[in-house]
Each structure stands twice: as C-alpha cells, then as structure tokens.
Design goal:
single chain, alpha/beta, 6-stranded mixed sheet, 17 strands, 51% helix, 11% strand, globular, binds nicotinamide-adenine-dinucleotide
Length: 696
Amino acid sequence: MSQVVELRRDGNVAVIVIENPPVNALSNAVRRGLIDALAQVKSDAAAEAAVLACAGRTFIAGADITEFGKPPQRPVTNDVIAAIETLGKPVIAAMHGTTLGGGLEIALGCHFRIAAQGTRRGQPEIKLGIIPGAGGTQRLPRLIGIEKALAMIVTGDPIPATEALALGLIDEMFDGDPIPAGVAFARKILADKRALRPARDRDEKIAAFKASGAKYDDLAAKYVKRGRVLDATAAAIEAVRFAIDLPVAEALEREREKFLLLVGGDQARAQRHIFFAEREAAKVPNLAGVKGREVKRAAVIGAGTMGGGIAMSFANAGIPVTLIEVTQDALSRGLGIIAKNYQGAVSRGSLKPEEAERRIALIKGETDFGAVAGADLVIEAVFEEMDIKNRVFGDLDRLTKSDAVLATNTSYLDVDAIAQATKRPQAVVGMHFFSPANVMRLLEVVRGKDTSPDTLATAIAVGRKIGKVPVVVGVCHGFVGNRMHRLRSIEAERLLLEGALPKEVDAAMTEFGFPMGPFAASDLAGLDISWRMRKAQGARAEIADALCEMQRFGQKSKRGFYVYEEGSRTPKPDPEVERLIVETSARLGMTRRNIDAKEIVERILFPMVNEGARILDEKIAQRPGDIDVIWIYGYGFPAWRGGPMHYADTCGLRYVCERLRDFAATTGDQRHKPTPLLERLAGEGRGLASLSEKAN
Ligand code: NAD
C-alpha cells in the first residue's frame, strides 16, 4: 500500500485512511494511494461499503498548493472522484477538522458525508485566485442549492457543521473519532439498503434556477456590483451557471477548463505568491528553534488612536492588557472610544454583547505607571517625540519585570536610540502597527541592532497570536512601508504640478486596484501630520503645504485635496484646488501636459519599487516578498497584483529600469535612477523573485 494511504477492513466495511501530515493535503501521492485503495475495495467481495477518513488533525484541508502552476499530474482529483462514483458500493466521507478545497470536492464525490461537531467545510479557492477544479461548482449546488453554493464559492468562507447539516451538505454529525463513526454510519445505510445517488445525479435543488435563467442573473449581480470583478469571481459565477445550463458531464469539463486557465493566469500567480510570501515573512535566519517568551499579560502605554486599537487587538485574542495614560481624562477618553468601537460591532451584529463585555473587561485602565510591573510585554504608543519616548523607556527599564519585552510603536524614530534609554537594549524591539490597529493586519517587527533573538521571536509570536501578519524589518527612517510610501506622496504631488488633477491620479490608482487613490487617502489620514513632519525636516510639498496653509486638512476639516459635504465621506473635486494646482504649475514655470493613466501608475509605483530594491540592498527587508506582504496588508495594494515587487517582475525589470531612467531624465530627480540591484537583475534577465529562490 502507499505510504500516505492505508486500507484495512472492519468486517464488511473497508476503511481507507489518509495520513499525509500536517493537513492531509491532496498531493499526487495521496491521489495515487486513493485510486489503488479504491481498486482493491472494488475487487474485495467482502467489502460492502467504504469509509474514507484521515489520521491526524483534520480531513483533507485542500490541494497541495506547490503543484499549482505546474502541469497537472495524473491521477487528478477528478480521477479519484470518478473511481468513487463508479465503485458500485457506498463510500462515506467521515470528516473531522477542516475540509477545504479539493478535500471538500472528494467528499462531494462520496455517496454520503458525515462530519464531527464543531468542524467546518469550505471551498476557499477564490482566495488563491482560482475556482474549484474538480466538480465543486457542480456538486455543491446540487447538494445545497445554487444560492448558498455560489456564496460559498465566491466568498471562499467556510460554513460550520451545523449549517452544513441543515443545508444537506452532510448527512449526519458525530462526536469523537471519525473512523468508528463512519463504520457505524456505513452499517446503518447497508442495513437500510439506502440507494446510491451521487451528487452529480441530483437535480432537485437546482430545478428552480433551471426553470429561470433570469433568477440566476439577479443572484450573480450581487457579486458584481462593487467595481471590478476579478477573473476568479467572474469564472466562479459562470461555472456555477453551467450547473443550470449544461448536462453535468459537459459542465464538469467546462469547469475544469476554466480552472486550468485561471491557475496559469497572472492573478492566481500573484495570489499564490502572497500566500507563500506571508508564511515566509516571519521566518528569520538564525531564529529557528528560538521560541520566544509567553505573553500572559501585556501593557500598552498611551490610549490614543494607536494605543486603543493595540489594546483591543490583545483583548480580541483573549490576552489581558493594561492600558496606561498620563491623566484620568485621557484614559477615560481612550477607554470610551474602545467601548464605542465594541458597541459598534455589537450593533452591526458582528459581535455578541457578552463577548464585547468579556473583551472590554480584559482591558484595564491605569494612570499609575507602576502597573507595567505585571506585564510580560509592554508596547509604547505615546506621542512621536524622541524626548518623550526616551523618558518612557527609562521608566519602563526601572519598573518592568527583568525579562519583559519592551516594544515601541514608533513610525519613524530610531529604535536603536530608543533602546539606549534602557540598560537592556537586547529587550527592545519595534512593533509597528497600522491604523486602525484593531483592524489592520500588518505588523512591522523592527529588529534593532541589539534586539536579542528571543525578544524578536516573542514579538513575532505574539503578533501572530493577536491575528497580525508580522514582517521583520530593520531600522531606518520609516522602516519599509512608510519609507516607500513617502516616495509615492512625492511623485503624486509632482504629477499634479506636471499636469494631472487629484481626481485623475486617484482614478488611475483605483483602476489599478487600490481601494482609494493617494489624495483621497491623504484627506482621510489628515494632511496636517505630514505637513508638520515636512516643516520639521525643512522639506516642502507645494500643493499639500498650500492646502494646509489654507486650513484644508482633509476630511476632518471637510476640505483637503477634495471637498466633503456635511455628513459625507465622498471626495468631490474642488475647482478652488484645481485652480491652485494650475497656478502653482505656472508660478514654477512648468508647462502642463496630459498625463495618461498608464504613466500615472508607473510614475507612482516604479519609484517605490526602486526604493524597495534599495531597502533590499541595505538588508532592511529580507526578501522582495516581505515588501509585497507589507504593501498588501498595510497599504491596500491589490493582492491579485501580488504587491509592488511582484508587479515589477510582471512588467519585466528591463522595462521598469527603462522607465525609471526616463523619469530621472524628465524630473531631474536622481533618486529615480534604477538602483544597481535592479540594473543587475534586469541585465541578467532575472526578476526580483529570483533573489528569494537563491536565498532558499
Ligand atoms: P495619539 O496622539 O492619538 O496618542 C498618543 C497618546 O499617548 C495620547 O493619548 C497621550 O495622552 C498619551 N501619552 C503621551 N505621553 C504619555 C506618557 N508619558 N505616558 C502615557 N501616555 C502618554 O497618537 P497616535 O496616533 O496613537 O500615535 C502614537 C504612536 O504611534 C506614535 O509614535 C506614532 O508615530 C505611532 N503610529 C501612529 C500611527 C497612526 O496612523 N496614527 C500609525 C502607526 C504608528
């Protein structure tokens, strides 16, 4: 028998067990093992039924993603399902854990399905830019109806066993071990002489839609309303429609064609890249085996915008947290906002009232700094001023436990300098959250020159525990994300002076896939913060500074790059701003010209890529994929474009370098000259991705 699939018999029931840790992925070896086992069951006259189950922590949790993008290896999942459907004996999928993707498709191919209580099933393919490729779009609607099946396939979200039972996705729920439950169920259906009706032959639940195609159009419209429809979403909608329009055999073939087309496409490639990059990002050389310390209680200093959100992230993960402020007033304000945020979630129906209360109770407000003594990890989120941070870290050094980890949420300040305010710089690390900190998933973990492996590992592990995506970065002004973001702001402003309007720049970037353009985003964040920073550095941004001088700070003052009507967050172009832009161009002696969307996108993204290459060269980021993860989870870069560095590879580095040279010549900004790293890779005909391949 194969090493990953075992066959045994329990009286008249054959038991096929997959053992392919950690998640029983449906690899080629598993598929081969299943085909062999099914053939043996077929020829074993004493076996009247078969139970398909898995060892370890879960039933098949999906395909083996490393096979995606390579030519399919037979037997494919469809071959396994065909062997099940033509076995002539009932096959029961007895599922525990999470059944996902190809795993669920195998289960859908079985004649019966039972699942452990409290477990989930889903078709999450869409999250990797593809659709189910082994009958999921055909068998799932036949078992649970078109409406729910389309929702599961288009959102990719799994459903709990109780819902699966109510919908008819599973036939029974069990408690405990899947194998005895499966064998008992098999005996029951043999005794009842239950007819074998494979899902593919059941049309009752799709009959209503077969009778009216328009009904499906209405349903599908729900998923195409908001702006762009990604390739996988469009394909999912079409594939489920095949269930209504085509004979099942043809529909299965057409689904497969669509799947293969998507798997080899740019969007799926980009999403696979991010899937792997996210897992790689928290891996740090020389950190293997360093576990980090357990954080049983955290403390957050400063209950402002960031401190409040950070405290919520801990409470959401069930970790008690002390929130410390200087005055009772500031503390009450901070705690009040936290309570309001939780109440908002309750009234939207996304959080149960008792859960909100439990979380609020985990956050303890304090004005006595001595309260840090109980914390295993302290995160400082006070004003962005070095003197204040130094004072806070001096106090932390005196008052915290000797083995506590001390983290700063600074955006720009030097983490090494902050560490020097303590006598234990090895215990100091940056934990740079993004606003709103309870929502945004990115966490830049900033490794200082003295940060110990154990401190770094603690920050990464706790970051994961509170649901963030930690990416390790080095110390420099703005770390990775904000350092690249700065270039975006400079270039966006320059485009205004050369001839574009804010609405044109924003339209080009939203068309590219960002949820918001750079000017609408600046208005939302507030123009005053970067204005103050520029003034401190003696830097100038002609348009943004002029707007601030006119007290136009963005949404908070109802006017910024755009104007906002009372109670509305929708940016409206403002003739006053457009006049200001045109006059400023004239004052600076610039001849305005038409700038098309393609140039806008390249002017904004390629200098960021160049800066990203500099960041890699300086070893501030370890891999191009880390930078991509930062931009996707922290700045709304469209995941299906794979992040800025992956996107540059898609465009071809030779082209990127050529454009950067053009930009350097036309703007006179020498920073746009391609970095030696980009030039070298382009010259060798390589992409940025090849850097990671070498490192691995
Ligand atoms: P904020 O002004 O909203 O909050 C700062 C809070 O710290 C205030 O409530 C203040 O009373 C309190 N505070 C000041 N000194 C203190 C002390 N000695 N002890 C206890 N509390 C003290 O500022 P914010 O936007 O939350 O930013 C905090 C930090 O996070 C800054 O370093 C900032 O650069 C960084 N950051 C901000 C963002 C953002 O988008 N706002 C994003 C990432 C990082």
